[in-house]
Specification:
Layout: H1 4-8, E1 17-18, E2 21-22, E3 24-25, H2 36-49, H3 59-78, E4 87-90, H4 93-104, E5 113-117, H5 126-135, E6 138-142, H6 155-158, E7 163-169, H7 181-190, E8 194-198, H8 210-213, E9 217-221, E10 232-236, H9 238-243, E11 254-257, E12 262-264, H10 278-294, H11 296-315, E13 320-323, E14 333-338, H12 343-351, E15 355-356, E16 358-360, H13 365-371, E17 376-380, H14 387-412, H15 416-420
Parallel strand pairs: 3-15, 5-6, 5-7, 7-8, 8-9
Antiparallel strand pairs: 1-2, 4-10, 9-10, 11-12, 13-14, 14-17, 16-17
The protein binds ligand C6P.
Length: about 425
């Protein structure tokens, strides 16, 4: 069980007010807040051992190098990777997916197929579109059903001999759907396709074990899991990373250079060109420590409770439509619309109450188009959110829906003068 009230004491920003009202931060799928433990670890790095890594023998560089390498090891353990060789630090999920798409596409040829799903974030569509354009490969999409879940009946007919890559999201950032990653990965393995898991919305919220899933690659962002912005992870199986060509060249990714040629450094540095984000790595390591201290299973349970509660309360509002599956089959987020109000206006109405949610297409335009909407308002939860905050959200939405109903009635009911005319 999580004591969210106690956890909140570690997050300075959660004490602030917005328009004189306590901040209710429900935009955690976009980015999460940072505990003092992460902020202090990064301050400590800059105040005491700021230095470049893997380059100098002086004391500061040794300390920074140890911290940077240990951050890789910590992340490897967190996701159950075999070792730090399998953990590449990038800028974010987007860069991790671009790295995978760029390097993997070097083995693609005309007629090969890349299978994605209809619920992907732009970051897991566009890099593959570009790879397909470069190589002549074709994109195919696993479809979603009326509940916002993937239609896994289609696995056999979509993934076949021509499939070379299957890239899909673990948890949808719009619908909240938790996909059956094991089943999709197993189908891809049968077809000998490489699997790439977009775990931007799963690794921060639930235990994720790459060995149990047996995925080949997995991408996620530090800033969505209490860490700083500017640091992300690409996990890859060592034997596959060994065979892959780098994406960026120069700096730490090199072991030997002549005027005409170069040899690559060992893993994971082969994929980390230039001076890396050392403070980001230090912050991410502190975030992993923090999350492990609370327990990923506990965080998952807490979010499930909040999601169940939010869905029960929001369902009672007549004018409100919720997208995606039932609470038991989703992660800690709820997307919705109030009839007649643009999602940006819903967000603005909530903002006036100090409640931060996101409104829009959430960087999943093809999915919004498929659903026949411009976007949704989305409330997304984390370990520091409380049942009281869900009450506030539901209360504010109820007020907004009632106001809207009155406004619609006023514009559609004829005035007395009009009635007597
Ligand atoms: N989704 C959201 O509000 P970056 O921006 O690189 O850290 O993460 C990209 C990304 C990739 N996949 C999924 C499933 C995601 O949800 C995100 C980020 C944020 O939904 C910002 S658009």
């Amino acid at each position: 069980m999580i004591n969210a009230k106690k956890i909140r004491e570690d997050f300075p920003i959660l004490k602030r007010k917005v328009y004189g009202k306590p901040l209710v931060y429900l935009d955690n799928a976009a980015t999460t807040q940072k505990p003092v433990q992460v902020i202090q670890a990064m301050n400590d790095y800059y105040e005491n051992y700021n230095s470049n890594v893997h380059r100098a023998v002086h004391r500061l560089s040794q300390e920074a190098t140890t911290a940077y390498d240990e951050a890789h090891e910590k992340v490897a353990k967190f996701i159950a990777a075999a070792g730090m060789e399998e953990v590449i630090f990038t800028k974010n999920t987007t860069e991790s997916l671009n790295l995978a798409a760029n390097s993997l596409s070097q083995q693609l040829k005309k007629g090969d197929e890349i299978v994605l799903t209809q619920m992907e974030h732009h970051s897991n569509i566009v890099p593959w579109q570009q790879a397909a354009k470069r190589t002549g490969a074709k994109l195919r999409f696993l479809e979603i059903d009326g509940n916002g879940e993937l239609n896994l009946q289609q696995l056999q007919q979509t993934i076949g001999k021509k499939t070379k890559i299957v890239a899909f999201t673990h948890v949808s950032n719009v619908l909240g759907t938790v996909n059956n990653a094991k089943e999709i990965i197993a189908a891809a393995k049968e077809a000998r396709a490489v699997t790439v898991l977009d775990a931007a919305q799963s690794v921060p919220h639930m235990p994720v074990d790459v060995k149990k899933l047996d995925c080949d690659f997995m991408a996620f962002s530090g800033h969505k899991m209490l860490g700083p912005t500017g640091i992300g992870v690409l996990y890859g199986k060592q034997e596959l990373l060994e065979k892959m060509e780098p994406f960026l060249y120069g700096g730490d990714m090199i072991s030997e250079v002549s005027f005409q040629d170069a040899k690559w450094n060992e893993l994971p540095w082969k994929f980390e060109a230039g001076t890396p984000n050392v403070s980001g790595a230090v912050g991410l390591a502190a975030a992993v420590d923090y999350l492990e201290g609370i327990g990923m299973e506990n965080i998952h349970e807490h979010e499930k409770t909040l999601t169940r509660m939010a869905m029960e309360k929001l369902r009672q509002i007549d004018e409100l439509t919720i997208y995606g599956p039932e609470a038991a089959r989703r992660g800690g987020l709820v997307s919705f619309n109030i009839n007649g109000i643009h999602p940006h206006d819903v967000s603005a109405l909530l903002d006036a109450e100090g409640i931060a949610v996101r409104g829009g297409h959430h960087c999943a335009m093809p999915l919004a188009k498929l659903l026949g909407i411009t976007g949704t308002a989305r409330a997304s939860f984390y370990l520091y959110n409380t049942p009281e905050e869900i009450e506030k959200l539901a209360g504010a939405l109820e007020t907004a829906a009632v106001k809207m109903k009155k406004m619609t009635a006023a514009t559609t009911t004829p005035t007395k003068a009009a009635r007597t005319a």
